[in-house]
Amino acid sequence: MNKEQTIDELKNIVKPYIVNQEAFDALTVETDFINDLKINSANLVDVILDIEEKYNIVIDNESMERMINVKSAMEIIETKLSERE
Amino acid sequence: MRKEEIISKLPYSKPFLFVEEISHIDENGVEGNFTFDENLDFYKGHFKDFPVTPGVILTEVMAQIGVVCLGIFLLNNTFSENNSIALTSTNVEFLKPIFPNEKVKVFSEKIYFRFGKLKCKVMMKNEKGEVVCTGIIAGMMVSPPQPSPQGREPKLD
Known about the structure:
Chain B: GO terms for molecular function: lyase activity. The complex is a heterodimer of chains A (85) and B (157). Chain A is built from five helices and no strands.
């Protein structure tokens, strides 16, 4: 999994739901979905469903709760992709 | 769960209960109806001397029947007074006006129910079967807000 490419893909996924444009423009692996990008919890569900669709994975409740920032999202995607293989 | 039981579990009462009857419900969707009593308070002001049902009220009817009733059904017996529900998004287009004493029918189809969020494709028709409004409505079942120690208003998100 290419890190830079995954960050770009995640950026595209969160784009429709972000409120804080500055935090989005300066997005790094440490960017927090709720506290930095100001995505509300209802839209975070859509972000997760879009991630599932993009990577063809299933995200369970436990992973959902851990998915607070770009870094944790990337880790969860990587884990789920490796489980699939 | 029986249809009457779902209505009894709704957290609304008059004058803000906008579900009269559930005619069909299953895990994929719900159909229900509501009749607009001409004495409803908002007709006095919307509009002056020309009562028309406000779009926000039509949206509320669609949300109560199409999302809240279905959500209670899907949660089955795990829904209790400890749950609170929140409307999270609406995207509705309006095609026809609804006047006092009209009866409307709401048809809702589940798009998904994941992580406590229920998103539905909802349509309202008048008695002639014409489409009144249509859209996408979503809501969440959330834990009751806890009073925070600082006395601040708890945030929904």
